[in-house]
Amino acid sequence: MSRTSKTGKSREPARPRADVRDAPGIGAGAGAGAGTGQPDIAPLPPPLVARAVAEALAEDLGLVGDVTTASTIEAGTQANAVIRARAGGVVSGLDVARVAFHALDASVTFDVVAADGSLVEAGATVARVSGNARAVLTGERVALNFMGRMSGIATLTRRYVDAVAGTRAAIVDTRKTTPGLRAFEKYAVRCGGGRNHRVGLFDAVLIKDNHIVAAGGIGRAVTAARRHAGHMVKIEVEVDTLEQLREALRYPVDAILLDNMPPSVLAEAVAMVAGRALTEASGGVNLDTVRAIAEAGVDLISVGALTHSASVLDLGLDFGD
Question: What CATH number is given to the structural domain containing 281?
């Protein structure tokens, strides 16, 4: 361990706690959106972050704690460390990492160098961490696990966003997320310049093909949804053909999901809708096809791969300046 020192004050890393002292700074504390040329990124709810970090640390520490660090690092040892990108990409998850260290020792200093949403090159310093060496070592893996996963999603999202630049289309995510981590992965999409689709089954009505079959048709499904959904709830209908689209447009819907249509058919569909509802393209979307889909004139392109197929961005924490 380089550049470490000891003080007379002995401080053991505490067990993770849900009431993280600095939690109100989530998102804003990392300067989310700063320097990205994009609007500020809506932050994650502090209690959600505190709970997820506490669970991750508890999983790692078990009933005994970090036996390696406790047996090799003398209590009170201080250290400086840096988090660096080992590959180029878009940063996401800094505040989650900060909470991971502060859950173990609130006196640890966490200084952001590259804000969430920033595009960094390989070798770039993302953050500096200093303080209780035991807390830094114990929290390292949890911090990097969150950041690597979230930054990988942000990086892939930015590639899709860049691919449709200059068109009207926005890149949006789906519910194809890691169980328990949806809010974090959707935040990462925002860091990459994408937008969030519905968060779950509770905040919007999306009538898909199986709903249509079970309900007895598009008309019956939309009518029932409009009758039961609150006045603030939007309704979207999935269609596979232009014939289904014509039927859906007879009813008061807010958005149309155009599923697995080639660009030429998408363009016809957009013309048929003529601004009466938002148009969303879905299915068969990848980096090779997304530009042509966007040029068909749709408003939204949903990409499940943003969250289910993103690679982890390689980040590392190294002691020393």
Answer: 3.20.20.70
